[in-house]
Amino acid sequence: MRITGCITALATPFEADGELDSDAWRRLLDRQLDGGVEGLVVAGSTGEAASLFEPEYDAILRLAVERVAGRVPVLAGTGLSNTQKTIELTRRVRALGADAALVVTPPYVRPTTDGLIAHYRAIADDNALPIVLYNVPSRTGVDMDIAAVEALHSHPNIIGIKEARSDSARMSALLRLRSPNFAILSGDDPTAGRAMLAGADGLISVGSNVAPRSFRRLCDLSRARRSGDSQALDQAMADLYDFLGIEPNPIPVKALLHQQGIGYGLRLPLTSLSPEYANTMRQVAEQVESLESQALRAGSI
């Protein structure tokens, strides 16, 4: 399996009372497929995985697998702070039909490089699913250094890495490890275009929840090395990038989704977008609508 192109880290829609909104989830999935995304992540950090109870996690993954019906890969977030628990969850998502697992570095416990290598090898050796490494130190408190990636990237069950740092030097170092069996994926919307122009295989995106056609086009242009067009689209999405970082993810993107009629809010301790950003949100929502219309008219590259 090779994971490439525009992949959406899906938000999880809730109803006004905080319960899962299965109808909104189906509509979000359909919108992603109609927008041309090339993969979906269920129950990652954008999906508020930490707030989901086991039956809810299983329900949204099962619905996603059924709705997608093999059209694009479905990845499930399975990274936990304990190795054996991560293995057991990865086995569970395999039984639910996931195609691969996105495994974040163990949150909070801050393992050494040797500990990280042993952790990922144990998960990969279990052979439940192909796994994608996920480095997002701002959330987990641990940064997977290049030495760890070098030690892991040739494992047959480790098929790529999602790198959520915006450091260009870090991306350059990772690109040296890229191969037909190991994909380099940006996890940072604002720098993803540059990463793909430099050779990265794709993007696991937050913003594509609300602008799937635009992010698919950005990925296509960047991977085709059409730098002028890619940079122009990147600049056109600058306000969206800024807004998505105005408060912790997924607060801003869920505000935009609500504006689009998908879902209502978040679960504590996350709260809805601060009122002071309401006007900005409406302006960005209008820009997103325009961007999506332009991407639809532009069609495929």
Task: For the structure shown, list the relevant keywords.
13 helices, 12% strand, 8-stranded parallel barrel, 301 residues, alpha/beta, 47% helix
What does this structure look like?
The protein has helices at 22-34, 54-68, 83-95, 113-126, 137-140, 146-152, 168-175, 189-197, 212-223, 227-236, 238-244, 251-259, 278-298, and strands at residues 5-9, 39-42, 74-77, 100-104, 131-135, 158-163, 183-186, 202-205. With 301 residues, the chain is α/β, with parallel strands linked by helices. The radius of gyration is 18 Å and the shape is globular.
Summarize the structure.
With 301 residues, the chain is an alpha/beta fold.
Give the helices and strands, then pairings.
Layout: E1 5-9, H1 22-34, E2 39-42, H2 54-68, E3 74-77, H3 83-95, E4 100-104, H4 113-126, E5 131-135, H5 137-140, H6 146-152, E6 158-163, H7 168-175, E7 183-186, H8 189-197, E8 202-205, H9 212-223, H10 227-236, H11 238-244, H12 251-259, H13 278-298
Parallel strand pairs: 1-2, 1-8, 2-3, 3-4, 4-5, 5-6, 6-7, 7-8
Helix pairs in contact: 1-2, 3-4, 4-6, 8-9, 8-10, 9-10, 9-13, 12-13
